[in-house]
């Protein structure tokens, strides 16, 4: 766009008006964006625990055997899992869902809490099975 000599002051004034009188962002919005990282990390950790650890067997149901390799993720699936649970929520929060940050926090935390409740109900952990899982986890 070429600017004529007489239009130079008008162009300068339009440019100043475009960037003047903006309120910016509040400290609360910055804190909510910053708090999104721990929320996504919590959801990522809970989902990873739910997907990769086999259910423990109760004393009544010892007949089932579990293949530990069945609960491990491959490189590509782990990359996609990490991308979908860590990167995508933050990209959405900074772009499309920027007006709904509080709702996004509630959804992430509610999902993590729901999965924790499901894990608690599905996995009946006895002291022996907990010790064996911990021991096998250290051997990884």
Describe this structure in words.
- Helix content is 66%, strand content 0%.
- The protein has 140 residues and is an all-alpha fold.
- The longest helix has 22 residues, at 101-122.
- The protein is elongated, with a radius of gyration of 25 Å.
- The model has no long low-confidence stretch (mean pLDDT 78).
Q: Structural class of the secondary structure composition?
A: mainly alpha
Order of helices and strands: HHHHHH
Largest sheet: none
β-strand number: 0
Helix content: 55-70%
Strand content: under 5%
Structure annotation, total helices: 6
Shape: elongated
Unreliable spans: none
Mean pLDDT: 78
Query: What is the gyration radius calculated from CA atoms?
Result: 25 Å
Distance between the termini: 63 Å
Question: How do the strands and helices of this protein lay out in sequence?
Answer:
Blueprint: H1 8-19, H2 27-34, H3 36-52, H4 75-94, H5 101-122, H6 127-139
Helix pairs in contact: 3-4, 3-5
Short structural summary:
The protein is built from 6 helices and no strands. It is an all-alpha fold.
Overview features:
140 residues; mainly alpha; 66% helix; 0% strand; elongated
């Amino acid at each position: 766009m070429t600017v004529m000599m007489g239009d130079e002051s008008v162009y300068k004034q339009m440019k100043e008006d475009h960037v003047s009188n903006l309120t910016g962002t509040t400290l609360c919005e910055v804190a909510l964006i910053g708090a999104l990282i721990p929320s996504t990390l919590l959801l990522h950790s809970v989902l990873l625990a739910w997907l990769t650890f086999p259910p423990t067997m109760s004393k009544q149901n010892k007949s089932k055997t579990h293949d530990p390799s069945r609960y491990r993720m491959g490189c590509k699936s782990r990359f996609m899992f990490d991308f979908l649970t860590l990167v995508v929520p933050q990209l959405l929060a900074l772009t499309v869902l920027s007006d709904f940050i509080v709702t996004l926090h509630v959804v992430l935390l509610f999902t993590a809490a729901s999965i924790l409740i499901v894990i608690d109900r599905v996995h009946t952990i006895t002291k022996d099975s907990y010790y064996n899982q911990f021991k096998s986890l250290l051997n990884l």
